[in-house]
Structures are given as C-alpha cells and as structure tokens.
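hey so i finally got around to running the thing on that chain from the lab meeting. sorry it took forever, my laptop kept dying and i had to restart like 3 times. anyway pasting the input first so we r on the same page abt which one it is
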Amino acid sequence: MPRPYFFRLAALGLPLAVGCSTPTVATDLSSPGPSASLGSAPAAGNRSPQERAVLDALAEYKQAVLASDTFALKRIWTDDYNFINTRGVLVTRAQRLANFASGATDIAVIDNERETTISVYGDMAVVQNLSTLRGQFSGQPADTELRGMFVWIHRDGRWQLITNELTAVVP
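ok and heres what got predicted. didnt touch it at all, straight out
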C-alpha cells in the first residue's frame, strides 16, 4: 500500500505540518458574500509578506486555470505536481496538462471563494478554501461547491504548487 502523501513530502526534505514550528496562520481571508475572491480579501495590510505572496500565487493559478494556460501551469506546478480530483483520482502533472490542452478540463467559472485560510511553514504553505466551480474536469461536467486544499513550496524565489485536492461539498 502506498504511503500517505505527507511521507513523500518528508522524503523530499520538506517540513511537515506536524512537529514544525508554529506556523503563520491567517483565517477567513476572503470577504463574505457571492462576489468574494482572493483579490478582494480585506485587511491586506494585516497579512505577512509570505501570506500575500502565496495568495498572489493562488490568484495567478486561478487565472491560468480559467484560461487553460498550459504554459503558465507548467511554471506554477512543480515537476512532481499531482492533483486529486473530485472523484478521488490521482492525476499527474502530465495528465493534467494534457487534459487542459485537449479541453477535457475546461473551467469556465471559479467564484464565491470563501472560508479561505492560509498557514505558512517556512518554505511551505497550505491554503484551504470553499468555492463554486463551473466547467468540466477530465471530460466530466462540474457545477458544484468544492472545498480545496493547495500545498505550495517556495523554490527559486517563487511559490510553486506541489499538490492540490478538490472535494465536492454534499448539499
């Protein structure tokens, strides 16, 4: 049986959330209401520079996903990036890039982003949020509320996404 992903992170020499020094944590960074987005989050001055940089990287990622910009996604994702989709399927970087390039994954709308939290652990950050996505993943229609988790690593002067997972919220 494969080991959980956090063991893979430890094998890469990355810090783990468990046993790490106290993280920088910001909670509920997004505005309430239907037009909330990371770009309109209040109290930007109250966030650390690291938190702002991670949120900027997440906003760049969102734009790349909406545009199906595989060039930008290649830069944003680490070489060993993987994605756990809403059906629980592990999708590699190559598979996900192929899905975007072919149009099998085509996200038209990401909105109503809320319940956004960020925890920074040195060169690693975890962002969680709740949002509405409309479009399709791997050829399957999607119009649902999704809870997302995004794990970022700071390398070569920029934040890169190493893994993320989207879980459908049951009404």
